[in-house]
Amino acid sequence: MAYETIRFETDGSVATITLNRPQVLNAVSVKMHEELRGALKAVTDSRAIRCLVLTGEGRAFCAGQDLTDRAVDGAKIDFAESIDKNYNRLIRTLRGLEIPVVTAVNGIAAGAGANIALTGDIVIAARSAEFIQAFIRIGLVPDCGGTYYLPRLIGRARAMALSMLGDKLPAPQAEAWGLIWKCVDDDKLKDETRALAQRLGGMPTKAIALMRRAFEASIDNTLDQQLDLERDLQLIATKTEDFGEGMRSFIEKRPAAFKGR
C-alpha cells in the first residue's frame, strides 16, 4: 500500500509508523486516518512484527485534528459519527494490539495528538516536546481517551487544570508528574527509541499484551476482582510457547529466545 500522509517501515521485529504531514505539524486528516487503518491492519496481520513505534516527522508529533480538512460547522458534520469512525477506532485499535506500543514524542503533541501519544504502553519524549490539551481553545472537550488517561496518570487536579487552561506541559514536567515514562535529549530520541523497541520486540510480547489488560482493569477493580483477573491472565500466559521457552532457558541457564507466541 502506498502512503501519502504517513510512513510505514519495518526493521526486523519492529514496525514504525511516522505521521508525515510536517507542513501542518502532522495534523490528522481523513486521509491519514485511512492510511493509519491500513498500516495497523498490516501490523495486526504480521507474525513477524512484535513491537510498534508511533512517532512524527519534523518538529511536531501531532497537532491534533486538521481543522482545514473538513467543515467545522456543527450543522454540516456529524461529530459523533466522525469521532467513532476515526479517533475512537484508532485508540481502540492501538490499545487492542497484542504487541507493545511505544510512542516517541518528537515535538508538539496537542489536542488529539497529545492523547494519541498517551495510548503508548511506553511514552518517551524529546526534551523539547510539549503536551497541550488544546481542546478548550476552540470550545471542545478532550477526546481520544484524554478524560480517561489523564486523571489516572496524573490525578484529577492536574488533569482538570491542564484541560481547562490549555497550557503547555513541557516534557520534563510531564516526566516528573508521571504522565510519560521518560524524556531524553532531542538528539538521542531516535536511538533510545530504537533500542527500546528492539528490546521489547525480543521479549515475550503475548505476556506484555496480557499485562496491559491487567493494569488497565486494575483502576476500577476491587482487590478480589484483580486477583481473579491475574489468575485468569496467568493461566493464558502459561499456555504460550514463550512461557515454555522461558522455563527451559531458566533451567538451562541461557538467554531465552522468545518468539511472541
Describe the structure in your own words.
This protein has helices at residues 30-45, 79-96, 112-117, 146-154, 156-165, 171-177, 189-201, 205-218, 223-238, 241-252, and strands spanning 6-11, 14-19, 51-56, 60-62, 101-105, 108-110, 122-126, 130-132, 168-170, 182-184. By secondary structure, the protein is α/β, with parallel strands linked by helices. The chain has two domains: 6-201, 2-enoyl-CoA Hydratase, Chain A, domain 1, CATH 3.90.226; 205-252, Orthogonal Bundle (Lyase 2-enoyl-coa Hydratase, Chain  A, domain 2), CATH 1.10.12. It has a six-stranded mixed β-sheet with strand order 1-2-3-5-7-10, with helices on both faces. Strand 2 (14-19), helix 1 (30-45) and strand 3 form a beta-alpha-beta unit. It starts with 5 loop residues before the first strand and ends in a 9-residue tail after the last helix.
What brief labels describe this structure?
16% strand, 10 helices, 261 residues, single chain, 2-enoyl-CoA Hydratase, Chain A, domain 1, Lyase 2-enoyl-coa Hydratase, Chain  A, domain 2, globular
Quick take:
The chain has helices spanning 30-45, 79-96, 112-117, 146-154, 156-165, 171-177, 189-201, 205-218, 223-238, 241-252; strands at residues 6-11, 14-19, 51-56, 60-62, 101-105, 108-110, 122-126, 130-132, 168-170, 182-184. It is α/β, with parallel strands linked by helices and 261 residues long.
